[in-house]
Structures are given as structure tokens and as C-alpha cells.
Design brief:
- The protein is of the alpha+beta class.
- Helix content is about 40%, strand content about 15%.
- It has a 6-stranded antiparallel sheet. Strands 4-5-6-7-11-12 form a 6-stranded antiparallel sheet.
- Helix 10 runs parallel beside helix 19.
- The longest helix is centred in the last third of the chain and has 20 residues.
Length: about 650
């Protein structure tokens, strides 16, 4: 895992190009604290910062192939590079290094752009084909690794692993895109290719981009897909269990490949625990596991973490995270995420990555992706129950089932059937609505828009992010089973935009730590897409097939445990000394008015409410954190201060 940046531009003077490449690399030094390098030829420049994991002695970048005229900078891992190298050797290719980077160059020589279909990995790269004067940029299928780009003066192109590096380019500025902000206040992240930065775009997951003769050609090379409803491939449960177990085991095996030790995050839930159970026998000297613990019982899962660590005999490390800890690191969270967030959940993961690095490790397996791929989120069960209730919309018994979905939300347990029916939209949402599964969440999040200033509302000109989302859905979407529609929405938008970015890559790489995601192995994703819905959500039991896989591998207290979503204290994290300091800097009426995005009096009222009593509702907490993080984003980027203090 690394970071890279570069450009193709005739407007950058040769005397300034080398220094510019070094500055672009320094802006993302945290992604690759081990080594750095630049390559410059004419009007093409590449910059790279390296986190040494594979090919420690000979994997330096930028890497060039003198025979073919190819040069590359690469971020991530090609997990099947060993097998690919042997296949390429059989075709007569010779290798000078033991790195997966050189395998990409050889694959491109043999297959051209179709090389992407052969890679099993989490990657982003830029490959310059000098004989053809052609730049190829590509991003992995699920969007684990980031890749941003912008057009530069004179029709050139700049690209980088993070926006910070692009802001070093002449003429590129950090101007807020109001539509992206509205998308964040709708579905927690901008809809790629849009970013928070006007005129800076993100290459979408599963896409490749070619820049040639001043023109961009962007195409999809892989898409998430499901069978038509009713045409899912029939599978006996025991056969499906064995198939999932075999593929997941192989995905873990490939992701244990490294020339440095590999550890694992352990939340105490089914997903990460199962990964740890499969990885532990593969870890020479024992598996190091890392967990976050919280002061509040509502969020803490330490008892389950200890149960798994003891059962697997791992070397366990815990990072305690209290409200002041969250507030202390929150400005850095926004700086590294490069976008506002509506929850504080990334902050503990930022601190956890710091603990990993303090223990001398820089690679961890994680359980992210299992909920999206195997139907684990409450929103999937909730949508199924809403459809069940909609068949008898005036029933007073059916809405009571919603209490069973959210045992960890005590306020919901006392609500009346009529309240529950209204809250979950049983009598108002159309079953034909493509966003039916997500409408309650969209309504709750959209409540935060009540805090918009009149100026921001005017800038948006009636823009509706939910309608925009619908316009991005594939034509085949309406032919899928409702569960698969909901899975697509989570996997295509929220997963790469928030889970893998704001909570994943950015928080880990802030400390030079690489996260690896076995559940997002594309082979496993494709298998899960073909599974019949009842094998994923059986009754009101989520991830049924994964529970069957885990049956003989985990203690029953974890394997049978209901889903508890990862959360952290939100507004409550900002009531101590560290939090009050942030509020006094960013959330005063004066500060809000100066920024111009939110209504000062409404925000002041919200802050006063938070200081006198806990904010319990999702809308108020999302608004509080979203507004605070937006204010921090403005202060961080609009002032031109883009290079973060290096924590490694």
C-alpha cells in the first residue's frame, strides 16, 4: 500500500516539475512513510510514497520497463501476483523483482487494458505508455483504494491518491461543491465522480480511465450485478456453506501474503471474528488482533472481543476510546477524510490504526464488506419487515415487530404501533419506489438539511440528491429481488463512499497502515450475488449463510450473536474540555455566519441543546456532527492548509 500522484501537462515548466512532484508526494507522505521517489520525462511526471509490504528490497516506485517504455505508480496489492507471475513466465516474460508492481507492467504488455480482468486485488494505479503517449488509470472493483483527478491548464491531467496532492498543482484550488455537500447530507458521501472539491473528480470503483491526445475515455470494466428476481441459482444450504467457506478461506489466505507480519481488527462481531478464526492458523507466531473499546456500555463490545481472542489464542491489543479521545482527534479525522462526516465512527478507527503502528505492524485484515455482501445490515431486515407490514397497512400487531429489530435502541421499545408505522413509512412509501429500502434513512438524514442557510439552499436550486441517486441506478435494477436492490445501494454508494473511505482507507493510511478486506474478494462478491435471498436473510436472521460457516469456528456467544452495528458516541463526544474547545472555535454563531452554509441561530440552538441534555435522535446527532465536520473542512482546506502533521 502506498500513495501516488502525477500529471500529464505541457503547462508545467521543466525547471519546476521535479519540485512539484516532490511536494505532491510530501502532501501524502503518511500513505508511504518508508520510501519516496519521482520520475519525470518531458511533460509527464510521477510521484510515489511507499509503504513497504511486498518486495521490500526491490519494489521501489515509480517503476519503469526500459524495454517496453512503460512506467507505473501503484497503490494497493495484487493478491494473486504469485500465480500471475508464474503464468506470465510460462509466456516467456522475465522478472527482475519480487514485487506485484512489476506483474502489472507485464500483464499490461500481454493483455493491454484487459489486464484488469486478471487481477485479484485492492488497487489504484497510473501507467504511462510512452510509445503510445497514453496514460491508463484504474481503480479496483469495489473501491477499496482511492483515485482522484482533475483537468489542468492547457488541457492537461493531474491525478493522485488523495486530493491534498492535487492541491499542489498550479491553478487547482479547494472550492466547496454544494451538490456534494448535499449528497453527504443525504447518503453520507458524495456520489462519485463528484467530490467535496469543485472541479476535482474521483474515478469510480471498477472503472478505468485513459488520457490520450488531451481526451479522457472513462469506462467500466466490472459491475456489481444480480440475477433477475426468481432466477437466482438454486443451492442446497450445505453446498452453499461449503462454497462460501472455501472462497472466504482462500480470500484470507491470499490476503495473508506479505513480507511483513499481518494482523487483524477484531470488533467482537461475526464478520471480523470469522476472519480472525480463518487467519489465526496461517499466522506464524500467532495472530495479533486489535480492538476498540468504549466507556459507554451502549457502544462497547469488549466482552465479545475477549471471548474470541481467548478462543483463538491471539495476541490481543485494545485501544480504549472515550469522548475526549474522539474530540481530540476529530479535526485530524476530517483532514484525512477530506470530506465532512455525519458520525464520529471514523475517529476510534483512526486511533486504532495508531495503536497498530505503535505495535510495529502495518497490515491488518478487517471484516468490512460482509454486511453489504451477505445481507447483514438492519436496513435489509427492516425493508423486508416494511414490505410485510405494507400488505396489511392498518395492522396494529405487525409494526410491533420493529422492536425486535433494534434491541439496542431503548427509546424504540416504548413506542406505539401507530408511531412505529409512521416512523418506518409503512403507509406512505410506495413498494415500487427504487429507494424503498432506504427511504426511512433518507428521511432521517434529510432532516439535517433544515439547518441549511438560505444562501446554500439557493445555490442548490432545488437539487434533490435522492432523485440524482435514482438516475444513477442501472436499468436492470428494477428486475432484481428487493433484497438485492438494497444490497446494491449499500455496496455501490455507501460502501466505497463512506465505509471504505472515511472509516477505512483514510483512517488506516493516516498512520501508514494497510487494511485488507477478505469479504470484498471479487470472487466471493460474485458468488454472494448469485445466492438466493433466503440464504442471506432468513426470516429476521441476517447473514444466515455466514452464521452457518462460522458454526464450527467460533464460540456460540459470538456466532449466534445478533448484529450490533459499529457506532461511537456522537454529539456526546464534544461535551468535555477537548470538545468544548472545538465548539468554541467552529460552532459559534459568528463562525457559522462567516462560513455561510448553515443558519447560525438554528445551529446555536442545537449546540445549546447538546450542552444541556444528550441528543438522542439520529437527526440531531447527524446534524451536529455534520455541521461541525463541515466547518472543520472549510477551515482546513479553504485556507490552503492542506498538509497534515505526520503521525508516523
Amino acid at each position: 500500500m502506498c500513495g501516488f500522484a502525477g500529471f500529464v501537462s505541457t503547462k508545467i515548466r521543466p525547471a519546476e516539475a521535479s519540485g512539484l512532484l516532490h511536494r505532491m508526494g510530501e502532501a501524502i507522505h503518511h500513505r508511504g512513510p518508508d520510501e519516496s521517489g519521482v520520475w519525470l520525462e518531458g511533460d509527464v511526471g510521477l510521484s510515489h510514497v511507499r509503504l513497504s509490504i511486498v518486495g521490500l528490497d526491490d519494489g521501489q516506485q515509480p517503476m519503469t520497463s526500459a524495454d517496453s517504455g512503460l512506467s507505473i505508480v501503484f497503490n494497493g496489492e495484487i493478491f494473486n501476483y504469485v500465480e500471475l507471475r508464474e503464468q506470465l513466465k510460462a509466456k516467456g516474460r522475465r522478472f527482475a523483482t519480487g514485487s506485484d508492481t512489476e506483474v502489472i507492467l507485464a500483464l499490461y504488455e500481454v493483455h493491454g487494458d484487459d489486464c484488469l480482468a486478471h487481477m485479484n486485488g485492492d488497487f489504484a494505479f497510473a501507467l504511462w505508455d510512452a510509445p503510445k503517449r497514453r496514460m491508463l488509470l484504474a481503480r479496483d472493483r469495489m473501491g477499496v483504494r482511492p483515485l482522484f483527478y482533475t483537468r489542468t491548464a492547457g488541457g492537461g491531467l493531474g491525478f493522485a491518491s488523495e486530493v491534498k496532492a492535487l492541491l499542489e498543482l498550479p491553478g487547482v484550488t479547494a472550492e466547496l461543491d454544494p451538490l456534494a455537500l448535499d449528497q453527504i447530507f443525504t447518503l453520507w458521501a458524495p456520489f462519485a465522480p463528484r467530490t467535496m472539491f469543485k472541479d476535482i473528480a474521483e474515478l469510480e470503483p471498477g472503472h478505468r480511465m485513459v488520457f490520450e491526445k488531451g481526451r479522457l475515455d472513462i469506462r467500466s470494466y466490472w459491475q456489481l450485478d444480480f440475477p433477475d428476481d426468481g432466477e437466482e441459482q438454486p443451492r442446497r444450504e450445505d453446498e452453499a456453506r461449503e462454497e462460501v467457506l472455501a472462497l472466504l478461506t482462500d480470500a484470507v489466505r491470499l490476503r495473508m501474503r506479505a513480507d511483513v507480519p499481518v494482523g487483524a481488527y477484531l470488533s467482537g462481531g461475526l464478520d471480523s471474528s470469522l476472519v480472525c478464526a480463518l487467519a489465526a492458523p496461517m499466522a506464524a507466531g500467532g495472530l495479533n488482533t486489535f480492538s476498540v473499546t468504549f466507556d459507554s456500555a451502549e457502544h462497547d463490545e469488549s466482552a465479545f472481543q475477549r471471548a474470541v481472542a481467548e478462543a483463538l489464542a491471539t495476541h490481543h491489543h485494545a485501544a480504549a476510546c472515550g469522548p475526549d479521545d474522539i474530540a481530540r482527534v476529530f479535526p485530524q479525522v476530517v483532514r484525512f477524510a477530506e470530506r465532512p462526516v455525519l458520525r464520529t465512527a471514523p475517529a476510534p478507527l483512526y486511533s486504532l490504526a495508531e495503536r497498530v503502528r505503535e505495535n510495529g505492524m502495518k497490515v491488518v485484515l478487517t471484516g468490512e464488506g460482509a454486511d453489504e455482501v451477505f445481507g447483514g445490515y438492519d436496513i435489509f431486515k427492516e425493508a423486508k419487515l416494511r414490505r410485510f407490514c405494507a400488505r396489511q397497512p392498518h395492522s396494529h400487531r405487525r409494526p410491533l415487530l420493529f422492536r425486535r429489530l433494534y434491541p439496542y435502541l431503548p427509546g424504540l421499545q416504548t413506542q406505539t404501533p401507530d408511531y412505529l408505522a409512521a416512523f418506518f413509512g409503512i403507509r406512505q412509501d410506495s413498494l415500487d419506489d427504487p429507494l424503498h429500502s432506504h427511504r426511512p434513512r433518507l428521511r432521517s438524514t434529510a432532516g439535517t438539511k433544515l439547518f441549511y442557510s438560505a444562501a446554500l439552499a439557493a445555490d442548490l436550486k432545488g437539487y434533490d440528491a435522492a432523485d440524482d441517486l435514482v438516475s444513477r441506478l442501472p436499468e436492470r435494477f428494477r428486475r432484481w429481488h428487493p433484497l438485492h436492490q438494497a444490497q446494491y445501494l449499500e455496496s455501490r454508494f455507501l460502501l466505497p463512499g463512506y465505509i471504505l473511505s472515511s472509516q477505512g482507507d483514510r483512517m488506516a493510511m493516516a498512520h501508514g497502515v494497510e487494511g485488507r478486506f477478505p469479504y470484498l474478494d471479487h470472487r466471493l462478491v460474485e458468488l454472494a450475488c448469485r445466492l438466493p435471498p433466503p440464504l442471506k436473510v432468513k426470516g429476521l436472521t441476517e447473514k444466515h449463510i455466514l452464521r452457518e460457516v462460522a458454526r464450527d469456528l467460533l464460540p456460540p456467544v459470538v456466532g449466534n450473536r445478533p448484529k450490533q452495528p459499529y457506532r461511537a458516541p456522537d454529539s456526546a463526544s464534544f461535551l468535555g474540555r477537548e470538545g468544548m474547545r472545538l465548539l468554541d472555535s467552529h460552532m459559534t454563531e459568528k463562525a457559522i455566519a462567516a462560513a455561510g452554509l448553515f443558519e447560525p441561530r438554528a445551529v446555536e440552538k442545537l449546540v445549546r441543546k447538546a450542552r444541556t441534555q444528550p441528543l438522542t435522535g439520529f437527526r440531531d446527532n447527524a446534524a451536529f456532527v455534520g455541521i461541525l465536520s463541515t466547518q472543520i473542512w472549510l477551515d482546513t482546506f479553504s485556507t490552503g492548509s492542506t498538509t497534515a502533521p505526520q503521525p508516523v
